[in-house]
Amino acid sequence: xxxxxxxxxxxxxPDKELVFEYGANQFVPNAYHITEVKNVHVESxxxxxxxxxxxxxxxxxWVNGIEKQDRAMTASKAKKIFDIVDSVKPLDITSPxxxxxxxxxxxxxxxxxxxxxxxxxKIVVKLFVPPVQCxxxxxxxxxxxxxxxxxxxxxxxxxx
Length: 160
Prior knowledge:
Blueprint (H helix, E strand, L loop, with lengths): L2 H10 L4 E7 L2 E2 L5 E13 L5 E12 L12 H14 L8 E7 L2 E13 L3 E7 L6 H13 L13
Parallel strand pairs: 1-7, 4-5
Antiparallel strand pairs: 1-2, 3-4, 5-6, 6-7
């Protein structure tokens, strides 16, 4: 999901609770804080020697373990945090948005949005950890489907 689409969702549902589900019926506790919003620029080179360059928005969720709350933060409160961030470090609203979450029993991971469900009272952001992928192999499969070229991950390609 693009950052702008997420921000528009918050803007259009100001009074709804913003809830994060990171596993089947496993929710970030209601007392979470948005502690950081990161503009991330990634420059990488994959195992096939291909350069990649892309941007992301990464939102860090944190729970101090002491606070308890009956309700999660509202969409308007979350939107205010994004507005503060944007006023200091402008957000790239065209970049995909991810959420960083972990606790004492769960290693911190970067989650992608699988789906958003809404009720009259809540926005539930259903998260998942995307699997690691071999970019050259993924690109090679795409090449095979379009041109049968094989790419670097073909049997004679030399990587993977």
